[in-house]
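Lecture 7 notes: from sequence to structure.

We start with a single chain of 152 residues. Read the sequence below before looking at the structure.
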Amino acid sequence: MTDFTFMKTGHDNLISDEITEEQQNMISIIIGFTENAMKTAAKYTIHAGRNVVLPEDIQRGLMLEMFIFNKRENIVEQLEDIRQEIFEDSSDDEEIIMEDPEVIPEFCESSCNCVMCNTMNNIRNAWQNFTPTSRLEILLKDYINRMNPPEN
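Now the structure, written as tokens:
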């Protein structure tokens, strides 16, 4: 008998293909956080008169989201929807069509005076004084700080 494929070595016994509920929740939080930040960055881009979301827009959106994520009224429902969509739905993935812009504009702050634009224009001041209070905030702040937006 030379076929030992039915035997396990014990090496993989500690590693599971199953994602725990805690991991599912963490993945949902990160996706929800990023989704909200990207929506804000896209709105800010439009208010700034540009048609391309730039790394600086994304970084500012992530910074702002750090301050408002836990204050969103529907955050629990949003995260549950994300969790169900990722881990419980068996639906096909949506196709995302991305086009490379012919010309990439330089970053410029929005001259719009709405609350969102004023906040995004000044987010770096608030960010400098922000002290994370949880492990997740520490990790996210470190990641956001390591992003390399274009120099203004």
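Helices lie at 21-47, 55-68, 75-87, 115-121, 123-128, 135-146. Keep this in mind for problem set 3.
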